[in-house]
Amino acid sequence: MGSEMCIRDRDYIILLAGSSIGHNLVLTSFGESHGKCVGAVLDGCPAGLELDEKDLQKMLDLRRPGQSLVSTQRKEGDVVEILSGVFRGYTTGAPITTIIWNKDHDSKSYAKLKTSMRPGHSDYPAYVKYKKYNDHRGGGRFSGRLTATYVMSGAIARKLLKVTLGVETNAYTCKIGKIGMKNQATQQMLKSIYANEVRCPEKSIAGKMKKSILDARKKGDSLGGIIESVTNNIPIGLGEPIFSSLESELSRAIYSIPAVKGVEFGSGFSGSEKHGSQNNDSYTFRRGKVVTKTNNAGGILGGISNGMPIVMRVAFKPASSIGKIQETVDLKTKKNTKLRVEGRHDPCVVPRAPPVVDSIVSLVIADQALQGGFIKPVI
Fold it and tell me: pLDDT tens digit string along 184-201?
């Protein structure tokens, strides 16, 4: 059924489009990288949340391209407009529609890519799936440009969580290539995430990360890395086991971010190397509250939040558009060929990813909070 998933429930059928996600708080993303605009519709946001375009613009500015040499040099202002769902400075409960007009897209370098498939990109499977009707310019619907739509709505969800539950999520770069932080960032360090271009709160490591990205860029190559996300003040009980467990919902949403290839919670894969006595989180009372002494579970047990911070790490592959000559095929000539990808591309997508991860996590947590009755329909 194309980009739709069909769920049959007795006497009716629910169609969930591939461009939408959420249960009670539903994000629908639209637009293409080189189209007229990109935008989002957020349905289910409670009425009474104080909101204006500045709330969204602040987060969009953090992911905006063209701000440093470690990211793409495409110059987009990414100025957001709210078209509906807000009246006299407050949400109305109606769908909130937001858009950004694309200004600095150059499609000329993509002309030859219509039939020459870029290694590492979605070009070939999209070409086959949509029978040549896919928009290939700048990756079209598969471009990282679309993460701006996540941030538009994610900024709303982030403010909703802060105002209603005091929940706050912070994502930061913890690894670029083989250069990484040894320990999780402290609460004090989280305040300095955006003090440098790579968005790593550890200054000495950030400098090494930047150098490695610039070195890769000079060679016409790219690097991947890891983002760590920490969400605090989470209420106990978010998540709907078993197939809508909190980990399931977060993972599904996170994998919608282009270039994401791995997700782990708490001790993650390293936990598989430990004994149970090492990995179990012992309970204790602290100021009258039940907490755990460690957080190897990453704040989730049995698919339900346990009140501890939700800690997850997200692995991003190296950016696929590189200046090196690569082997590929030309579907028009039906011959093997070589290709050098031209245009303006990120040598590493990781430094621009923290606000995107923050947005996705906030959308899922807010959706689960609405579903569980932790947030009411009217604030």
Answer: 999 999 999 999 999 999
| CA gap 379, 377 in Å, rounded | 7
Alpha helix locations (H) across 16-146? 53-63, 123-129
Q: Any residues with CB less than 8 A from the CB of 349 and at least 6 apart, and which? A: 144, 224, 258, 259, 316, 319
Backbone φ and ψ of 230, nearest 5°: -125, 120
Amino acid, single-letter form, for residue 167: V
The token duo for 19 is 């461009």
Contacts of 252 (CB under 8 A, 6+ apart): 21
Instruction: Give the three-class secondary structure for 217.
Output: helix
Quick check: pTM over 0.70?
Answer: yes
Q: Which two tokens stand for residue 288?
A: 């009258």
Checking DSSP bridges between strand 300-301 and strand 179-180, what pairing results, if any? unpaired
Nearest-angstrom CA–CA distance, 126 and 160: 36
Residue 20, pLDDT score: 92
Instruction: List domains and CATH numbers for the chain.
Output: 20-371 (3.60.150.10)
CB 188 within 8 A of CB 177: no
Lowest mean pLDDT among 27-41, 55-69, 74-88, 208-222: 55-69
Please tell me which residue, 118 or 87, carries the higher pLDDT value: 87
